[in-house]
Amino acid sequence: MWWPVIAAVAAGAGYAGAVEPFWIRPVTYEVVVPGLDPGMDGFRILHLSDLHGRVDVFARAWFWRWAAGCQLAVVTGDLFAWSLSRARVARALNALAATLPTYYVSGNHDWRRGRLAVEPWDPGPGHLDNRAVPLAGGRLWLAGLPDLKRGRPDWAAVVAALPVEGPAVLLSHRPDAVLHPACQRFALVLSGHTHGGQVCLPGGTALVRHTRLPWPYAAGRWEWAPGHTVITSRGLGESELPVRFACRPEVVQVVLRAAAGARVAEGANDVVH
């Protein structure tokens, strides 16, 4: 009598531990950025987050085809897991940085005893915590904050580094950055941290969201104010509990659009891998 239930539970546990964590989906979002120079329409950003040691995607041909179509790569924190090779992560990120300009901001798991600890990787000039850099001759600005709780975010310094006007993108490990008044300066925020809930109900509703943003937001795209969008990646890895259910890991590509009349679409493009 109980065997069907036991078998279903065992199958679900096997899927959550051995299948879905490795079933990576590529996701594309198109975002209209007010004030973006028309010459930058179609600018593409490859967004990775919450690797937690999982860099299997770097061995897949479709990932590098995606990277080749982008002008920039960003990594929004949480690089390592205690049980997986840090050296392997460093090699993967170095390979990415050799292909694309790569910028990184720290996540909560990247801090140890009050200091940033991402050895053996060295993000070099791509380390964007509390910094802002111009892209394409200043037609677009990219800024970053360290983890909002374990890092030492300096909103004043970041905003002061930007021109008074013009399109700007913020990297923040936690999507809760949009709750800060200074975030109004940014048309787009790219974040992670939530893992999309990691374990969700069928249909994708997260049981645990790890954000103070309004329910039911846990990942994906949300226009948190007119002309202001946050995109939160579900990430590539898992922390503590190495399972995923109804919440596949993902690599995100963001396409910037210059005009409100541009075609805006979002969704997942599954590939065979």
Describe the structure.
The protein has helices at about 5-20, 60-70, 85-100, 155-160, and strands spanning about 25-30, 45-50, 70-75, 100-105, 110, 115, 130-135, 140-145, 170, 190, 220-225, 230, 250-255, 265-270. The chain has a single domain, classed as Purple Acid Phosphatase, chain A, domain 2 (4-Layer Sandwich), CATH 3.60.21. It is globular. With about 270 residues, it is α/β, with parallel strands linked by helices.
What is the gist of this entry?
With 273 residues, the chain is an alpha/beta fold. It has helices at residues 3-18, 61-68, 86-99, 155-160, and strands spanning 25-32, 44-48, 72-75, 102-104, 111-112, 115-116, 131-135, 140-144, 168-171, 188-191, 220-225, 228-232, 250-257, 266-268.
Give structural attributes.
273 residues, 6-stranded mixed beta sheet, globular, alpha/beta, Purple Acid Phosphatase, chain A, domain 2
Placed side by side, the strands forming the largest sheet appear as 4-3-2-13-1-14
What is Rg?
A: 18 Å
The number of helices is 4
Number of domains: 1
Portion in helices: 10-25%
- Report the biggest beta sheet as strand number plus sense, adding barrel if it closes: 6 strands, mixed
Spans of at least 5 consecutive residues whose pLDDT stays below 50 are 262-273
By secondary-structure content and strand pairing, the structural class works out as: alpha/beta
Q: What is the average of the pLDDT values?
A: 92
